[in-house]
Prior knowledge:
about 15% helix; mainly beta; Jelly Rolls; about 35% strand; 14 strands; globular
Amino acid sequence: MQIVKYRRQLPQFRLVESFFSKEEVEKIIDLEELQNFTKGAVGEDSSPNLNSKVRDSDISWLHPSKESEWLFFKFHNLVGDVNHDVFMYDIDGFESFQYTKYKNNQHYSWHFDSYTQYTTWERRISAVIILTDPNKYEGGELQVVTNGNIEAPMTFKPPAGSVVFFASWMPHRVVPVQKGVRKSLVAWIMGRRVC
C-alpha cells in the first residue's frame, strides 16, 4: 500500500492583510528617494527586453542596507510562517525586493514568474507588498489565476501594508492604473532546483 504523503490540499496563495503598519509603509516609501528607477523589462534575466504592450512600469531594486535591514528581517519571518501554512516548499531565501510603480495606464499583462529555462535556483513563491492605500488609485488590481480558469481570476486590492503570496507558476497580472500611482514591493522566494 502506498502512503499518502500529504493529507490536505494546499491553496497555493495567501493574503496577509495589513502586515506592515502605516508607519512601516511610510518608512518603505521613504526608501524610494534612494532608488534609481528604470522601465520594467520582460523575459529571462539573460535576455530582458522592453515591451510596453506587455509590461509598462517603473522599477528599481531594493537591496539590504542599514536603512532596509528591518524590512528584510520582518519579511523573512513572515515567509517562513506562510510557507509552512500554505506551500510547504523547499525554499532557501529570496532575491532583493523589486520596487515597482504603476501610473497613467501602466500595467503588466498576464505572465508567470517561474523561469522557462534551466537555472540552479528557481522562483517558487511570489510575494507582492502593497504600499499604496487602495483609495488613492483607480485600477491597478492584482489578479491571480488560482483555479486554472483565466476567465475567473482572484482579484486583490488590499489595504496598504498587505502582502499577497502565490505560487510563482500561477498566471497573474496588474490591470492598468487609471488614476493615481500604485506602489508595491515584489519578492521571489527561491529554492534550489533538484533536477
